[in-house]
Amino acid sequence: MKDEKTRIGIIGVGQIGKGHVRKYMAMPHVEIAAIADIDEAEANRVAAESGIASVYTDFRQLLARDDIKAVDVCLHNNFHMPATVAALEAGKHVFCEKPMAGAYVDAEKMLATARECGLMLSIQNRVYFTNETKAAKALIDGGHLGKLYHARSTGYRRRGRPFVDGYGSPFFVNKETASGGALYDMGVYHISTMLYLLGNPDVLRISGKTYQEIAMNAARRESSGYNVEELGLGFVRLADNITLDIIEAWAIHLDSFGGSYVVGNEGGVRLEPFGYFHSVGDLDLDSTANLPMFDYRLHNVHGQGDVYDSEQEHWIAAVEGRVELLPTAEIALNCMLISEGIYLSNQLGREVSAEEVREASVSTAVAI
Questions:
Q1: Phi then psi dihedrals of residue 250, to 5 deg
Q2: pLDDT, tens only, 177-230
């Protein structure tokens, strides 16, 4: 039926899950049929507030329902793999929060399971769907940058470490649940977006360093067991003679970083603030763009509709067969390889190969 709603379930309705609920509630062709969370009282409160009919404390009961076509996994990092694999094996398409998992080997299992089951797996990255990224992709696809050869991934917060600086829960800053810090929390957005714009080339070698140097509230440090990085740095050699450098900071004594960018032999594009740079003969041109009009034309001239409006709208459109799913899981897996490579390089004090990272990767998954 044309007017039939896509019925989904949501696993986890904490801070992030509540945001996902709100997004789906605004999509008239989607019905949240059920939610699952171990905090029964909070799950019931969210369900009552949002008009969701069914609540479970065991997500496997949600997965057992044959009227639910797809699920959204909104758990902490080290719970992603077990819940995602269980959902895929139950015949559900899966949208999973970033990062893909707590370890490369777990992320690899998620993608392998999706392929074995013939189901769709999408990993959340809202940055793919900003006007800046879509405009950069249009320039690249149009050949306006020429041959791509380098990109920079940047993420900046002056003092924005979860929990210890006042925002979020201790689960974000403890390896037992999160596995990593700035790289896994915010770096995944920017690294994955650069990989997307570059065409997701194979990762060859990684060098990196992490830091935790800036003072924090002592009581919150102790109560959270804070043991992850606030600053992650990396240099990555990719296939096709492409390189990527990375700086991702939860906290740093600087006023700003320049935004992420991609450069080619005929032009370059920066995402924040958006700019396109190229030269015509002896004339160097630094261009701004009318991004609202770009977005207007995508919708009203090209009839794009909602299929690239947000990460969840894109995933639902793919589940409904209205658009081909972007390779978000494949890109997220490469991002996991890079992040874990930075951690391994930091540990060993040298550059590491992608194969070394794969061989050294150990599951951080927590049984649920």
A1: -80, -30
A2: 899 999 999 999 999 999 999 999 999 999 999 999 999 999 999 999 999 999
**Pick from 276, 238, 293, 287: which is nearest to 144 by CA?**
276
Mean pLDDT, to the nearest integer, of 50-57? 96
For residue 2, what pLDDT band results from cuts at 50, 70 and 90?
very low
Q: What residues have CB less than 8 Å from 280, skipping those under 6 apart?
A: none
pLDDT (tens digit per residue) in 78-92: 999 999 999 999 999
SS3 label, residue 322: coil
Q: In 143-239, which residue ranges form alpha helices assigned H by DSSP? A: 182, 188-198, 218-224
Q: For the beta carbon of residue 215, count every other beta carbon within 10 angstroms.
A: 9
Q: Phi then psi for 80, rounded to 5 degrees?
A: -60, -50
150: which strand partners?
A: 243, 263
pTM above 0.90, yes or no: yes
Rounded Cα distance, 338 and 352, in Å: 10
Residue 107 has pLDDT above 50, yes or no: yes
What pairing do the DSSP bridges indicate for beta strands 203-211 and 231-238?
antiparallel
Residue 150 · residue 263 · CB < 8 Å:
yes
Q: What is the distance between the alpha carbons of residues 294 and 65, in angstroms, rounded to a whole number?
A: 42
Tokens of residue 347, six digits: 């540990």
Q: Is 83 in contact with 56 (CB distance < 8 Å)?
A: no
Helices (H), ranges, the chain: 15-25, 40-50, 59-63, 80-89, 104-117, 131-141, 182, 188-198, 218-224, 291-300, 311-319, 328-348, 354-360
Would strands 242-249 and 261-264 be described as parallel, antiparallel, or unpaired? unpaired
Terminal Cα distance for the chain, rounded? 36
**Type of residue at 137:** K
Structure tokens at 24: 């789906």
Q: What share of the chain is helix, strand, coil (3-state, %, to 5)?
A: 40, 25, 40
b/e map of 277-298 (b: 16 or more CB within 10 Å)?
ebeeeeeeeeeebeeeeebeeb
